[in-house]
Write a structure and sequence with these properties.
122 residues; alpha+beta; 4 strands; globular
Amino acid sequence: MVSKKSRSEVRVKKHMKLRNRFSGTAERPRLAVFRSNNHMYAQIIDDTVGNTLVAASTLEKDVKAALEKTNNVEAAAYLGKVIAEKATAKGITEVVFDRGGFIYQGKVKALADAAREAGLNF
């Protein structure tokens, strides 16, 4: 009998393949996205030293207060705008997009598009 891998195992394996291809530097850090069933998280990371430069999530009070739900496309778009504003305030404009093994559609795409509109280049 053939056993089927869980979606989370498949996602983690895809993410490891993606991470072998690129990493964040000081000049061009990595915008890492993670989504759970209830929330979304975005971090801008410099992998050379292992520092998180900027972080935002739908768990933050000011972000959560502006949203009706924290797990839909509108919430993802708002989070993309917030992370881009925080990044530009710190002087970060160029990033590498790390979709975290998730398919580039829906919430992940909405976050990326909103971050691009708010000033990040990737």
